[in-house]
Structure formats: C-alpha cells, structure tokens
Amino acid sequence: MPASHDLPGSQPPVTLASANLPRRVRRVLEHLLSMASDEMARLLGQMLNDFEQQLFRLADHARNPGLQSGYMDTLRILRLNRADLVPRYLMGLEAALAAVREAPTRGIAPTSAAGPVPFRNLSLVDDAAMDEEAVLRGIAMRHEARASLPLHLLGQRFGVLAGSPAFDAERLPVGPHALGRILREASQSLQIGLEARLLLFRTFERTVMQHYTHLAETMNAMLEREGILPSLAYVPIRVRPVLQNPQPASDEMPAGATAPEDAPPPKPERTTRRAAGTGANTSSARQARDPHRAHTAWLGEMDGDDEGFDEGAAFALLQQLLSGRRDLIGKLRPDRGSKLRTQLDTHEVLQSLDAMQNRPSPTGSTRNVLEIKQALLAQSRQQHGRGASLSREDSDAFELLGMLYSQIDREVRRDTPAVGLLDRLQVPLLRIALQDRAFFVRPQHPARQLLNAVAESGATWLSDDEVDPQLTDALRSAVEHVVTEYHDDPAVFEAANRDLQASLQHLTRKAEVTERRHVEAARGKEKLELAKRRASEVIEAALRDHRLPKFVRALLHQAWADVLTLTLLRHGEESDDWRAQLEATRHIVAATGRNGGTAPAGLSEQIERALVQVGYHIDEASAIARRLTTGIGEDEDDPASRTELAMRLKARSRLGEDTDKPKPKLPPRTAEEQAAYDHLRTVPFGAWFEFTSNQQGDRVRRRLSWFSPVTDNALFVNQRGQRVGEQSLDSLARMMAKGQVRVVTADRGRMVDRAWHSALNALRSFAGSGSGAEEAAS
C-alpha cells in the first residue's frame, strides 16, 4: 500500500507474521485469513460495483442539477480510489486476527476507577461519527441475531485460540461488529462524504452481509478441520413442558398450551375440507399447471388458478420445515424465562396490530417485520409489567412474512413508490397471515395477489417508463383501502384485489393493443421480405441462361426488383398484374441479351409506369426503361450517362431498404446452442425473457410477442406493449447458451413466488428437506 494512501495519524496494522502468537495458533489464523480474504475480496468487489450503480441511478433521477453534480462527483472520486478499499479492508481483517490475544480495548471502564469529570475537556460528539456508528451497529445486531448459532460456536473456538474465555459476538475479530468497524476505517480511503458512506454501509449489508451466515458456518467448519474443538455442539438442557390438557389438541395448537377462553377458535377446518375434497385431483391439477411452462402473464396479472391445490398437504410440509428450523435455532435459546413470560394469544396480538396499523413508523423510514414484533412485545411488557412472548404458530407467521419481505426487498428498487406501499402493507398482511395460514401456501390468495402486484411495480427488471402512472394510482388506492378498512375481515382484501385486478386488466388491454400494432408491423415486414425473396428468385430464373451487360443486371436487381416486390405485395401471385410483370421480365431479358432482340411494343411505357409507382422520378424511370428495352452493349454505352444514372440510383432509398442490413457470418451453432435454438422455436408467443443488461448481472424483462419461422426474426416488447427491439432466434440461442438470456418459467414469473421459493430454500437449509417439500409448499 502506498504511503500516500495512509490515513493521517494511523499506525501500520499488525500482521500475523509479526504477532506474538504460538506457532499452531498462527498457522490456524493464517488459514482462516486466507479463506476469509478470498470470500470477502469477492463480495467487496460486488459491493463496489453495486455502489457505483446506485450512485449513477441516483444521479440519473436527481431532481436538480446540484444533486446530480454531487452524485457524479462522488462517483468520479469513488472510481479513482476504489482500488484502495479491498486491500485496506483485508489489512484491517488481518490486524484484527493478529490481536486475538490482546486485551479488549472496547468496553466501559469500571466506575470505581473513574475520577472527577474534567468539564473543561468536554466536547460535542461528532454527528457523522454518531450516524456511522448507529448504522453499523444496527447492521451488526441484525446479522448477529440471524447467525446466532454459528457466532456462538465461533466465540467458543476463538476463546481456545486466545487462551481466554469464549468471545462474545462484539469481540469476535470476524464477527459482524468487527467487520463493520473494519469497513468504517477502510472506507476513509475512498474520500467520499458522509451521505455516500452511509449508502455504502447499506450496500455492504445487502451485498456482503447477506452471505455472512454461510461465511460463519464455513469458518466453523475450517476450524473444526484444524482440530479446534472438533466435537463442539451446543444443546442446552430444557425443561419439557407439562401437558395440562390431555385431550387431543388442534394441529395448530402447540403442545402443552390451552386456548384462552376469550381467544377466537382455531381455523384448520377450511384447509382440511379443501384438502379432502380435492386430494383425488391433485396429480392432474399439478400437471395442468406445470411450473416449468413459460410465464406469459402481464405485470401483476394472475397466471392460472389453484384448482385442485392441496392446501392441507402444503401447510403440513411447511410446518415440518419450520419445525426443523425451530429445533436448530432453539439450541441457542434455552427456555429459561418461560415461567416469567406471558404468552400472548392470537386475539391479543391482532388487537395490538390493529392499533398500530395506521400508525406511522417512529423514525419516519421503512420498518421491517422484526421491528414490528419487537414493538408489539415492548408494548405488551409495558401493559403487563412482565416480559411477553408469542405462541409458536404466531411466531412462525412473523418469521415467514419477515423472510418473504426480506427476499422481496432484494428485487425492488429503492427509488420507487413500491417501497412505501410495501411498508404500509406489512401490518395488514401480518394480521391476515395470523388468521389465514393459506396466505403462505395458496398462490392465488387475494392478499398474496395484492402483495405481488405492489412488489412487481417496483421490480429491478423494470425501467422508469414501463410502469403506467395509472397503475401506481391503482396500487396506492388498493393499499390505502386495505390499511384503512381492514379489521380482520378477509373480504376487504378480496375487494381491494378485485378492484386492482380490474385496473390491471384495463392496462393489459391497452398493452395488448399496442403490442398488436407492433406485431402487425412485424408481419408486414415479413411479407415484404418474402416478396423481395420471390422477386429475386424470378429475376435469377430469368437470367439463368442469358448473358446480360453488368449494368443491366444491376438495374434488374435493383429497380425492376422493386417493381416485382410491390406488385406481389399489392396483388399476389395469382393476379393478372403479377403475370404481366413476369412476362415483362422475360421480354427485358430477351431484349437486352447478348443475342439481341426486339422489345415488344408498349414495353418501355409499361416499365416506365411501373417504376413511377415505386417512387422513381419520371426522368429516371424513362432512362431506366430505355436501357431495359434496348440491347446496348458495354462498349457501346456512354460511360458518362451510365455513371450519372448509377450515382442517382445509389443515392435513392429502395423499397424496404432497412431489411437489407447484411447479417454477419457466424460459426455453426454448438450442440448447446442448437438445443436452445430448437427450444426457442417451441416457446409460445407472449413468453417473458430475462436479458442480462450489464456486467453486474442486472436483468430486464422482455416479452416475446412474435417471431417469424421464415425470416427467424423475433419481436420483443416491454410491460406496456411498446416495441423494444428485434433479434434473430439464432442470436437469441447463442445468448441463452452463454447464460445471458433465459425464459421466465411460471414458478419464477411472479415476484412473490420467486421470493417464496428463496424463503423455502432457506428453511430447507435448516431442516435438510428435499425438493418435494418445496413443490408442495409453494
């Protein structure tokens, strides 16, 4: 690292080579550093790329030139200094590992040792330091909660390496707190302002820290292979709850718990009846709604139905996944204070959520499901004077919706109205999820449909001009109706979704009308291309056994080919006009051939009239007709007049000239490209494709409206039915083979479905379940 990049007053970081560590400890930490450095360098590179994209997007959407200039200046400075961040970060990480046996410097000094406060040395706290500290601490606490078990095991193993008691999460040199502190120090090398650094920290959480749980588990596995507590497992002793009600409880009632007298009865009957009535048709229904078929629905539109969907089986498998996750996480949460905590029944939880439904976020920013849960428990603690907890089923509903929102948040642009609308929907969705578990397992649930429409309006695959302002107004109206009117009545969601679907159908019809116009234009171009090919075939057939001057051949392939093309388009091959032009072609070839011939009377006038119809000036048409009806040899022709006519013809545009673009010669398709090409020819019109738009992996969605099996051209439109380009199926197949294009399948078409699949994958990672659970639960 160049000395000019060092921070003012900073000391050279300690390295593992210079640290006073036992040989084995140094070797283990070196291996750990090597593994962590590779992963962090890759993730930090992605973070910087994402940060650049955000700055560019903010500059592009800035409301005034001053803001735009500020973002562009920050982007310029970032590009100049970004190469310093990763090396500095890795140096800080090595320094943290090298200091593993040093006494902790953070913490509060004992009060007994504190002397009188020197008031003359008091100073105001730097606001920038407070903001950075608050943001990084919030990030660290969130990921500390998500990776509690791997962090606990890491703390035990680092205690062995340090020869001290187990490390807590804040002291761990590879913990979320330490990684945030290292980023804060390393980010000084970027020389960007406070606002940009805070944006960088949030990008760090979204890009790097989302992989932290996996990284912590990988570090535990590596330390276990190195022989550091290889058999470590944490299984706390928990008192088994005593069954108070020996009667069979409902499937949704936790073991050992009894329903309060004033609590609403559980509602598993609806699911059971539906499952029993449709179980026989489940197999055929799943075949009818094949998840791997191409997704063809427009934005927010329902794609198929859930006829024959077995909610009972799906929810049972979902409970298995949740049980596996709960058992694993429960190892870190011994039930010490169960007797001191009041378990809130569902009715009381619903009442508390009803009170905060119209209440804005305390900080004025968006909130998440975890914050709502914490606020609810804090409110209950104030009311009852003791800690409170949720029932197992209610806690599951909070966890599932939080996971769903977390996945949706990754695919929603932060500068769209959808962010605020999603925030407003959280409490009503929590209430409907607590009452109706079908929200999680039934794809066509009204609340899930509404959530999907709102989320897709801010999807990252949409550009700014793809969302109709009328759709934004309809979404805002639907969300406000739910927030204002919903008081545990599912009909409110059904009414809001019904009105929204009506608006979506209206916008879909508009998009389809626009799309149809572009399809008709594309079909017209195809007809023109076919007519030009047929005209060229006719001329080539007429010239096959004749030798004509080069200039006459050029006139036939250019001027007379336009005449044949227009005649074929207007009248068709069965018309008298087409037969007359074919006869004229044969007469032209006979009159201008080497053997010589006499043109029939009226041929020159016929050629002249035809050329005028395709746009030639009368003088040009007359000159061309004269040369096409007289056998003037190359040596007899006037070069000056021939050159002048050739230049005039070259300067004018031909009929359908934009379709004459030469196509580059490409190598033969590989086996993979040929398979993609064959698949593309079977994809239905209306299927959605995702194109990779840049090196960062951002994707945009385009709808295949039509393709020609003759010309191989494919027409693509956007969400509003507007034409965005044409491509050949050959180039599309080559891009698919490279992973730059993919067909959007029905199970990944809607954003909520994609987010739900990701949440299920996370659950299966805890429960170790197979793909069958995902299929049934989705």
The share of residues in helices is 55-70%
Percent of residues in β-strands:
under 5%
Supply Rg. Answer: 36 Å
Q: Main sheet? A: 5 strands, antiparallel
Poorly predicted parts: 1-10, 106-115, 236-288, 769-778
Shape, per Cα inertia axes: elongated
Strands of the largest sheet, in order across it?
Answer: 6-5-4-3-7
How many β-strand runs? 7
How would you describe the overall organization of this protein?
By secondary structure, this protein is mostly helical. The protein has helices at 23-60, 65-81, 85-98, 127-146, 148-162, 176-186, 194-207, 212-225, 269-278, 282-288, 311-330, 346-356, 369-384, 392-409, 418-435, 438-441, 446-456, 469-485, 490-543, 550-571, 576-592, 603-613, 618-629, 639-651, 671-680, 729-737, 751-767, 771-777, and strands spanning 342-344, 388-390, 688-692, 699-707, 713-717, 723-728, 741-743. Helix content is 57%, strand content 4%. It has a 5-stranded antiparallel sheet. A two-stranded parallel ribbon has the order 1-2. Helix 1 (23-60) packs antiparallel against helix 3. The model is unreliable at 1-10, 106-115, 236-288 and 769-778 (pLDDT under 50).
List the helices and strands and how they pair.
Blueprint: H1 23-60, H2 65-81, H3 85-98, H4 127-146, H5 148-162, H6 176-186, H7 194-207, H8 212-225, H9 269-278, H10 282-288, H11 311-330, E1 342-344, H12 346-356, H13 369-384, E2 388-390, H14 392-409, H15 418-435, H16 438-441, H17 446-456, H18 469-485, H19 490-543, H20 550-571, H21 576-592, H22 603-613, H23 618-629, H24 639-651, H25 671-680, E3 688-692, E4 699-707, E5 713-717, E6 723-728, H26 729-737, E7 741-743, H27 751-767, H28 771-777
Parallel strand pairs: 1-2
Antiparallel strand pairs: 3-4, 3-7, 4-5, 5-6
